[in-house]
Design the sequence.
């Protein structure tokens, strides 16, 4: 008797869609059902919809991968964003904004200005 492979979560499709598609779906759904770590506080993140995640601990909502969070990649993006923000803050502190020259109001009243015909 031949030993069959375990279908995992893709077993609900039966023989439809082919073995490669069912295998890919089973792999993705297996990763999706694991507890996902929050990149900000290492709490638990919950998937709200495609690519939208909410951390249960720090209550931050963020965008990331659609099905599961990759640990190293997201932290690198966060570090890069923080570095960019710090650089922009330094540049804005160094460059003082020039004062805008406003339109000078005339001190003459309307009665003093004769109308031209």
Sequence:
């Amino acid at each position: 008797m031949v030993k069959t492979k375990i279908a995992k979560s893709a077993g609900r499709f039966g023989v439809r869609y082919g073995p490669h598609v069912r295998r890919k779906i089973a792999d993705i759904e297996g990763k999706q059902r694991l507890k996902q770590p929050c990149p900000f506080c290492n709490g638990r993140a919950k998937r709200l919809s495609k690519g939208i995640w909410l951390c249960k601990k720090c209550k931050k909502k963020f965008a990331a991968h659609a099905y599961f969070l990759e640990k190293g990649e997201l932290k690198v993006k966060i570090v890069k964003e923080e570095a960019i923000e710090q650089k922009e803050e330094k540049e804005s502190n160094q460059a003082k904004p020039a004062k805008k020259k406003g339109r000078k109001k005339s001190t003459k009243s309307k009665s003093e200005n004769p109308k031209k015909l």
